[in-house]
Amino acid sequence: MTTPATPVRVLLADDEEMIRRGVQLILSHAEGIEVVAEAVNGEQAVQLAAEHRPDVALVDIRMPVLDGLAAVSRLVALDPAPQVVMLTTFGDDQNVVRALRDGATGFLLKDEGPQELISAVRAAAAGDAVLSPGVTGSVIRRMLTGGSAPSSADPRLSSLTDRERQVLSMLGQGASNADIARSLGIGVGTVKTHVGAILEKTGSTSRVQAALLAHQAGLAG
C-alpha cells in the first residue's frame, strides 16, 4: 500500500485518558498518520484545531466544558476545517444524527479494532464518509424519519449536472471517492471536484448530508 508523502495529521479529543492513550498508541504505529494534538474537552479541541490545523479530528461525543456535539459546528467552520469523526458508543444514535447534521464526516464506535480505526482516519482524510457498520442502519433510519422528503424536482437537485447526479447517487450508496472514480472511469481528483460542487449546490456541509439527500430523493438506488 502506498502511503501519502505527508502524514495525515490527527487531533484526538476525549476526556478519558485511557481512551486517548489507546488511540494514540494505535495511530502512532500506523504508516502515514501522526497525532499532532490531544484535547480533553471540546473547547480545547477547537483551540488546538485552529492552532495545529489537523486533517482529521477524532472527537468524543460526551466531554466536559464543551461537549463534542457543540464542538462540531465550530470545528467545521474553521479554515481550513478538519474532517470530524465522532467517537461514540452503542445506543447513542440521536447524538450521532445531530453531529452528522451539523457537519461531521461520520462516526466510529469506540470498541472498533485497531485496523478499523486506522482505516477510518485514512478514509476521512481522503474525503470519504466514515460510518461504523454496527450502527449505520439505525442512524440512517433515524435521519430519514420525519419531515417531507425532497423530490427530484427540488431546486437543490435541479441545479446539478448529469455527472453530479451520478456522483450523488453513488454517495447515497456509500461509495468512496475511489469507488466512484473506478465506476465512472474518471480520476479521484475529478470525483473530489464533483463532490465539492454537490456540497455547494445542495447546501450540504458533508458528504454524509449529501448521501442522506440522495436517499430522501430516491437517487440512491
What are the SSEs and their pairings?
Blueprint: E1 8-13, H1 17-28, E2 33-39, H2 42-52, E3 56-60, H3 68-76, E4 83-88, H4 93-101, E5 106-109, H5 114-125, E6 130-131, H6 136-144, H7 155-158, H8 162-172, H9 177-184, H10 188-202, H11 207-216
Parallel strand pairs: 1-2, 1-3, 3-4, 4-5, 5-6
Please provide a written account of the structure.
The protein has eleven helices and six strands. With 221 residues, the chain is of the alpha/beta class. The protein has a six-stranded parallel sheet with strand order 2-1-3-4-5-6, with helices on both faces. Helix 2 packs parallel to helix 3, helix 4 crosses helix 6 and helix 8 packs across helix 11. The model has no long low-confidence stretch (mean pLDDT 83).
Summarize it.
The protein is an alpha/beta fold.
Please tell me how large the radius of gyration is. 17 Å
Number of helices: 11
Query: Distance N terminus to C terminus?
Result: 32 Å
Helix fraction bin: 40-55%
Give the integer mean of the pLDDT values: 83
List the helices and strands in order.
Answer: EHEHEHEHEHEHHHHHH
Shape: globular
Largest sheet: 6 strands, parallel
**Strand order in the sheet with the most strands:** 2-1-3-4-5-6
Structural class: alpha/beta
CATH superfamily of the largest domain: Response regulator
Output the CATH topology of the largest domain: Rossmann fold
The domain tally reads 2
Q: What fraction strand?
A: 5-15%
Do you know the CATH architecture of the largest domain? 3-Layer(aba) Sandwich
Number of strands: 6
Q: In CATH, what is the class of the largest domain?
A: Alpha Beta
Which regions contain 5 or more consecutive residues with pLDDT less than 50?
Answer: none
